[in-house]
């Protein structure tokens, strides 16, 4: 599976909000060329693993201030959204009803509410968006599970939720 970088914080400090993977790649490249910069910051590299039955592939997309990470991982059924935390490890979030296990979690807020995209009974099959068809935006929480966010009037169920803030507002 992929790894993510988490900056170590002192007790009482707030963890930096989110680190996009592009910044991770850039940071690793700079650290490789300038090891003296790496020595001044304390970072922990941690493998997240992958979901059971997959082909040892996972991608992290966002991290919240509690150290919870979301993304997608291969699994027995296909690509699946996941939530990882230091206590429980990686758990699959599934997909929307009627979907074909093609989902990804794109963001998580500090309440543990996750947003992303999934194939569903509402999304039409085509190669137009992502791979293998259109998607429907979703929201997930530990109490209610994954729920589709529907579509705009006259839409064609081709949506992706990419961000959620701590007020629950979704972009």
Quick gist of this model?
With 171 residues, this protein is mainly beta. The protein is 11% helix and 34% strand.
Strand order of the largest sheet: 3-4-5-6
Low-confidence stretches: 1-12, 15-20, 126-131
Strand content: 25-35%
**How would you spell out the order of helices and strands?**
EHHEEEEEEEEE
Distance between the first and last residues' Cα: 28 Å
Q: What proportion of the residues is helical, as a percent range? A: 10-25%
Report the major sheet: 4 strands, antiparallel
Per DSSP E runs of 2 or more residues, the count of β-strands stands at 10
- CA-atom Rg in angstroms: 17 Å
Count of individual helical segments = 2
Shape call: globular
Tell me the structural class: mainly beta
Task: Describe the protein.
- The chain has 171 residues and is mainly beta.
- The chain contains 2 helices and 10 strands; from the N terminus they run E-H-H-E-E-E-E-E-E-E-E-E.
- The strands form 3 sheets. A 4-stranded antiparallel sheet has the order 3-4-5-6, with no helix packed on it. A 4-stranded antiparallel sheet has the order 7-8-9-10, with no helix packed on it. A two-stranded antiparallel ribbon has the order 1-2.
- The longest helix is centred in the first third of the chain and has 13 residues, at 21-33.
- The protein is globular.
- The chain starts with a strand and ends in a 23-residue tail after the last strand.
